């Protein structure tokens, strides 16, 4: 994906290392910071969800191995170009053959996008056509990205110059497919959550759903902003490698977004627990005040034992019916929070 550097060297006849490598160096340094944030999120996930579903554990472990492999490749590339090979024009001329980390970016994005796609399907299975569309766009983006990397990696730098226009078009299409996938996924998720929020749930559950909606928009906006910036840099400066700096951040941004979504379940649980504790406190205070008023009432005649037993039976049956309805509603709310929390 760095064929623009070969085009620039061939057209200008000189080597401007700052113009060719500055964006990549800045992108690598920021990506190292995002990797540190990712490791912290991994620790939080292990502490808060030691008994999480096996599918989630496999997903997190697989992404961790993938990101560690990518981190080692980035360290190698940084050492090769910016340390050992600093100022070496021969190494710079063949830099497209040494940037292996870009091959992992389409795979990482595809995995994360399918996770959010499966979340939409678990929330509302009637939206399976939208889920199929998101999966198709994600797989298309992955294929386009792998094709662009293959064209850049295979062949000599001289032959790459003749394919530079094709590579640029593929990279541009890769950004567009990513933005379309993120937009459709975000809009669909927010639509489903808002429709669920309109259901007959208690206040704490509705507040939890509202916070999930807000968090979904904010987290998905981060990846969309990075892709928009990358596409804008490619359109404005097509003969440079400025767009590679922000492109380097995409795998870390997507993976952090997934881990943040999983860890946000702890915040949702805390909000619901606090809401339930507040409701119980209010009920307890009302019950403690009730006897003082009862004492002021005039004495009433005693009823017969038969009437008292019958009244007790009616109250028992009525309270059991209310309890059954309450248990059904609580189970529905727990199911809703579980599905949204899995997001």
From TrEMBL:
The keyword Transmembrane applies. The chain crosses the membrane at residues 20-44, 56-76, 99-116, 128-153, 173-194, 215-236, 242-262. It holds the Pfam family DUF6534. Residues 306-343 are annotated as: Disordered. Keywords: Membrane, Transmembrane, Transmembrane helix. It comes from the Eukaryota. Residues 180-266 form the DUF6534 domain. The keyword Nucleotide-binding does not apply. This is DUF6534 domain-containing protein. The lineage of its organism: Eukaryota, Fungi, Dikarya, Basidiomycota, Agaricomycotina.
């Amino acid at each position: 994906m760095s064929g623009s550097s070969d085009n620039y060297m061939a057209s200008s006849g000189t080597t401007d290392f700052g113009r060719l490598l500055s964006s990549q160096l800045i992108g690598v340094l920021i990506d190292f910071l995002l990797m540190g944030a990712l490791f912290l999120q991994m620790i939080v996930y292990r502490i808060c969800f030691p008994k999480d579903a096996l599918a989630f554990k496999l997903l997190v472990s697989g992404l961790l191995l993938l990101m560690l492999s990518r981190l080692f490749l980035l360290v190698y590339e940084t050492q090769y170009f910016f340390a050992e090979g600093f100022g070496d024009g021969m190494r710079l001329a063949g830099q497209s053959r040494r940037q292996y980390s870009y091959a992992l970016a389409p795979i990482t994005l595809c995995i994360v996008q399918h996770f959010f796609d499966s979340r939409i399907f678990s929330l509302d299975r009637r939206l399976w056509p939208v889920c199929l569309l998101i999966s198709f766009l994600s797989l298309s983006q992955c294929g386009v990205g792998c094709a662009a990397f293959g064209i850049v990696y295979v062949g000599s730098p001289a032959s790459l110059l003749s394919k530079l226009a094709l590579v640029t078009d593929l990279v541009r299409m890769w950004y567009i497919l990513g933005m379309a996938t993120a937009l459709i996924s975000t809009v669909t998720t927010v639509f489903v959550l808002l429709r669920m929020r309109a259901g007959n749930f208690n206040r704490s559950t509705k507040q939890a759903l509202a916070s999930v909606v807000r968090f979904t928009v904010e987290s998905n906006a981060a990846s969309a902003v990075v892709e928009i910036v990358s596409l804008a840099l490619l359109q404005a400066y097509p003969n440079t490698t400025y767009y590679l700096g922000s492109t380097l951040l995409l795998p870390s941004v997507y993976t952090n977004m997934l881990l943040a979504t999983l860890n946000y379940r702890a915040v949702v649980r805390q909000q619901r627990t606090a809401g339930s504790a507040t409701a119980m406190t209010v009920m307890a205070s009302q019950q403690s005040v009730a006897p003082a008023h009862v004492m002021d009432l005039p004495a009433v005649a005693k009823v017969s034992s038969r009437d008292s037993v019958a009244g007790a039976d009616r109250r028992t049956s009525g309270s059991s019916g209310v309890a059954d309805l309450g248990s059904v509603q609580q189970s529905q709310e727990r199911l809703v929070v579980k599905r949204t929390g899995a997001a």
